[in-house]
Amino acid sequence: MSLRVRALAWTDSLKTWRLMHDVYALQHPSDLCQSFKDLITHLGGVAWSIEHDGSERGHRALKQLASRNGWQHHPYPPPPGLPDQRGTILVSSLERLSEPPLLVSGIDRWARATWLAYAPLHAIARDWIQQALLLVPDKKH
Question: For 3-141, where are the E strands, in sequence order?
Fold first, then answer.
């Protein structure tokens, strides 16, 4: 797997690297999603990547939102909680993908399956994105 992931580096895709990290965190929440800060960063990151352009602006904004105080006053995980099943596709499915374009496509399928598993939290992830975008001005306008 590590050689195939290294091959991904040749695609020069920071967006894909980020997505891979966020999806892995969502599928391993007991290790990597133990707080609102983690969940905002990773669930928000997957939402940003799938439903928006996956740009640096959105990820930076989500990190700023996650770093703000006040989350300790909210129940964690947010209702209805983290899903028991976290996607029908696992990271191990990427092992057989040797070419970078196939690996990128496999990561996208893995991310979408994980995002679907988190459907009960889609609304809150979308809300986090909207809140976060208010923190980072769009330099295009």
Answer: none
